[in-house]
Amino acid sequence: MSDFLSSGWSVYIAAVTLFGLVACLWLLLVASRRKVMANDNSTGHVWDEDLRELNNPLPRWWMVLFVITVVFALGYLVLYPGLGSHEGRLGWTSTGQYQAEQKQAEAEMSAVYARYTSLDAEALARDPKAMGIGERLFINNCAACHGSDARGSKGFPNLTDGDWLHGGSFDKIKETITKGRVGVMPPMAAAVGGSEEVKQVANYVLSLSGSPHNSLAAQLGRSKFTACAACHGAKGEGNQAVGAPNLSDKIWLHGWGEDAIVSIVTQGKTNVMPAQEGRLTPAQIHVLGAYVWSLSHPTMTAAR
Questions:
Q1: Which of 41, 52, 102, 119 matches a 20 to 30 Å C-alpha distance to 78?
Q2: Could you tell me if 224 and 201 are in contact, meaning their C-beta atoms sit under 8 angstroms apart?
Q3: For this UniProt entry, what is the primary localization, expressed as one broad class (predicted)?
């Protein structure tokens, strides 16, 4: 109800609710006063020759149950929110209950995570139980984007290789999970010069990784790559301080080939890794970070 600028809608909802309950009581009162008719109490409707419809009043015990239902509804509306903006005498809210359940769950799980918070990534990677917890956390919170095998897909990084936009250390992984990341590649077509120059730069970028390219266009694009070097470096090896990808390897996050590179240079690209600090506790992030770290360190995983 807080979304509305006035209390009119709240009053309307409360009035309709109370009117409905009063109407139910009135109908029950009217029905309770009905008497059995002097004749056979039949409505005159007959089916299958001898099946007659009677017009008897409701049984008293049934009427009592209906009254109890209405009284219960009134009591509920006094104790809990339901009458427009009325908060209820108990002050209950779904948000408050959710937060209380979250705190209870965190308190119960704190004992489980307590043994892991002091361990580093290597020690956790050797602990099967810790990795089991980390895997479940990953499936529940990360697999939707990175895949259940953590190999990612177009636009979502592969977490099992050694290619990291912001660094693959244990601390950097935990930082990324906690705070999230926003990667922005601005449109660079104007800075490069034009559509033809963008193609030349694209071929030069392809040449950095030894990918098939037009060598003449690549030579022409080399001088124009200076507009990109501020982020990707003079040799295109990337810059983890700003999350700029390494263009000299053969790992392509948003697609490979001249057309894909031209599209990114022309239109730019924005990628968002949402922060998880509101969903996971620091202890959970610690274990999850170790699991993600272990994916790109198979020798440590194999030692478990």
A1: 102
A2: yes
A3: membrane
- Asked if residue 228 belongs to a known ligand binding site, the reply is yes
Same fold, 102-180+274-302 and 184-273: yes
pLDDT digits (tens, 9 = 90+) for 116-168: 999 999 999 999 999 999 999 999 999 999 999 999 999 999 999 989 999 99
Q: Is 300 annotated as a binding residue?
A: no
Radius of gyration, CA atoms only, the chain: 34
Does the domain made of 102-180+274-302 have the CATH classification 1.10.760.10? Answer: yes
Alpha helices in 148-225 (DSSP H): 170-179, 189-192, 195-208, 215-222
pTM for the model? 0.71
> In whole angstroms, what is the distance from residue 265 CA to residue 202 CA?
8
282-295 vs 170-179: helix axis angle to the nearest 10? 130
* Burial bucket for residue 247 (CB in 10 Å: 0-12, 13-18, 19+): buried
pLDDT attached to residue 83: 87
